[in-house]
């Protein structure tokens, strides 16, 4: 049985796509996943399964659509992939509030995207992660999920430093 970190894109954001975590855990248990845990209200899941990553993503997306009537993109990483993403972060993590990781739905060969007006904000594209360093704050940055998705033709979901590290701690404990 393998353990995975599963990320849902765009739930419980600004009152949209409300998905109570207790109901989500119940849905995932009903789908046969083991050791299901969630972290905060933004679609961070740990679970164990014998199934492939693509099957897990499809099952979760399909069942959320049936039960909650939301078409929610689902991304998945192994603990090893998650740790690698953290270890490869190229910018300072001294100020955790300006550090984030945008996880992508596929590996990207592209290393640059044109975004006007990003000022001191920085990014680095590395396979299936965009590393973000945003001194302008995430409320003001142009490096949003929507921008990344449009420029790279992928699904992207972003997690801040604290959440990313917490998920690694949780999966390490599991």
Automatic annotation (TrEMBL):
InterPro entries: DUF1697 (IPR012545). Signal peptide: none annotated. It comes from the Bacteria. This is DUF1697 domain-containing protein.
């Amino acid at each position: 049985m393998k353990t995975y970190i599963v990320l849902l894109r765009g739930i419980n954001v600004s009152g949209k796509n409300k998905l109570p975590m207790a109901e989500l855990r119940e849905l995932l248990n009903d789908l046969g996943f083991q050791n299901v845990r969630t972290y905060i209200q933004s679609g961070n899941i740990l679970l164990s399964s014998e199934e492939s990553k693509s099957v897990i993503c499809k099952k979760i997306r399909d069942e959320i659509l049936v039960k909650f009537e939301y078409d929610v993109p689902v991304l998945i990483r192994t603990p090893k992939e998650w740790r690698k993403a953290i270890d490869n972060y190229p910018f300072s993590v001294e100020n955790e509030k300006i550090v984030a990781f945008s996880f992508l739905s596929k590996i990207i060969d592209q290393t640059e995207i044109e975004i006007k007006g990003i000022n001191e904000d920085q990014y680095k594209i590395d396979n299936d992660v965009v590393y973000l360093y945003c001194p302008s704050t995430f409320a003001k940055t142009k490096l949003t999920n929507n921008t990344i998705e449009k420029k790279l033709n992928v699904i992207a979901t972003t997690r801040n430093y604290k959440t990313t590290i917490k998920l690694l701690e949780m999966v390490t404990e599991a």
